[in-house]
Write a structure and sequence with these properties.
Blueprint: E1 21-22, E2 33-34, H1 40-65, E3 77-80, E4 86-89, E5 95-97, E6 101-106, E7 113-118, H2 122-135, H3 143-149, H4 170-186, H5 195-202, E8 210-212, E9 229-236, E10 241-248, E11 252-259, E12 267-274, E13 279-280, H6 291-298, H7 307-341, H8 353-383
Antiparallel strand pairs: 1-2, 3-4, 4-5, 6-7, 8-11, 9-10, 9-12, 10-11, 12-13
Helix pairs in contact: 1-4, 7-8
Length: 384
């Protein structure tokens, strides 16, 4: 029986210490797993460092495209707007203000204060009111009465969010190389051939064996508008190479050389997935790169001016459309639930004209901010 050894620590892999390693990290939407590649300890260690660094780096895109993860949700993240405010973007697309806000101003009535509260929840508003009452003990503030009479309103950020993205770094780079190595080994390439990859992953000061490649499109049947992830490997006995191509969200495009002294069988393999819906894709990757091509990619010479921006332009509309549809569904579902809950009809009761009128009014009230917001955005786009 063939024995497998951990790609990183080279301990023998057994049933007890074998890990199910995601080829593409689960944190950014990967699903396919391989066994017999690395042990549990190395899986956990690399996950806490390399995968974590990559996930943090790509988190804005994970939130923007609303990816599906096997475990957990994409962590929320604060973004600054073009107007200088900060909002927290959540995995379901809705945004929260950075912190609750309240103001006290003189009312038109003598010795009275006007309280204005902007909170993220009713419970948060209650805490703020209790704090105000404590600060003004002689006031006639009735917290429960104020909350009962309070009008909950939804509003949309009037400005654009600023996304600051950067690719690269030693930890995230090692995550990329590990993903390519996992696909190579699971495709039948022996770990002993992946010399350059192993050296980079195991030695802190080793030269990186990957670089960015935008000079031509290596994906020959690129699906229009899909921010896919893909990893592709090719072991060639003629060129003595094991080379790989990796792409995340359709915009981060990387080539690498896992080995330059390969003498095994000719092997190719590709794994691609749409992280928005979790569907695997059948992509054709043309990996006919010379050692000079790869070396130039390592030295940032395969990034023509405007090529990265062009890659973003192809997938950004998909993210915007996805966000619109998700918010539209969320608002409609919330409006319908609130309308039926407050129309006055009992469960199982046939709706009369009064119930229907109340339901209609509530739904219109709930949808109004969403409709106005999108009308304003449409006008902004037309003026650009």
């Amino acid at each position: 029986m063939k024995k497998n050894f951990c790609f990183l620590c080279e301990e023998e892999i057994t049933e007890k210490n074998d890990s199910k390693e995601h080829i593409i990290p689960n944190a950014i939407g990967g699903k396919r797993k391989v066994k017999g590649f690395i042990c549990n300890i190395c899986n956990n260690t690399s996950g806490d460092t390399w995968e974590s660094a990559l996930a943090n780096q790509l988190n804005p895109l994970s939130l923007f495209f609303g990816i599906i993860r096997e475990r957990g949700n994409t962590p929320p993240q604060f973004f600054e707007t073009t107007g200088g405010e900060k909002y927290k973007l959540n995995h379901d697309g809705h945004m929260d203000i950075e912190k609750p806000i309240y103001s006290l101003t003189n009312s038109e009535y003598k010795d009275a204060l006007k309280i204005s509260i902007k909170a993220r929840s009713k419970s948060e508003a209650k805490k703020m009111l209790i704090g105000i009452k404590r600060k003004y003990p002689k006031s006639a503030i009735d917290v429960n009465e104020l909350l009962d009479n309070a009008k909950l309103e939804s509003s949309y950020c009037p400005d654009w969010l600023k996304f600051n993205l950067s690719f690269g770094g030693q930890d995230s780079g090692r995550s990329i190389v590990k993903s390519a190595s996992a696909l190579a080994v699971s495709s039948g390439i022996l770990p002993k051939y992946c010399i350059e990859a192993k050296n980079y992953l195991k030695n802190k000061d080793a030269e990186a064996c990957f670089g960015y490649f935008y000079e031509s499109d290596l994906v020959k049947n690129r699906p229009i508008g899909i921010p896919f992830h893909c990893v592709s490997i090719k072991g060639c006995s003629t060129t003595k190479q094991v080379i790989a191509y990796l792409e995340y969200f359709g915009v981060q495009r990387v080539v690498m050389c896992l080995s330059s002294s390969y003498d095994g069988d000719d092997i190719e393999g590709t794994y691609a997935i749409n992280p928005i819906n979790g569907e695997e894709l059948n992509l054709v990757i043309e990996l006919n790169l010379s050692n000079d091509d790869i070396r130039e990619a390592y030295n940032y010479k395969k990034i023509p001016k405007g090529s990265i921006e062009s890659a973003f332009d192809k997938v950004i509309p998909t993210g915007l459309n996805s966000a619109f549809e998700k918010e539209q569904d969320r608002i409609i579902n919330r409006a319908v639930k609130r309308a039926f809950k407050n129309c006055g009809a009992k469960e199982g009761e046939i709706l009369n004209s009064k119930h229907i009128s109340i339901i209609t009014d509530i739904i219109i009230e709930e949808l109004k901010p969403f409709i106005i917001h999108n009308m304003v955005n449409s006008r902004k786009k037309e003026s650009l």
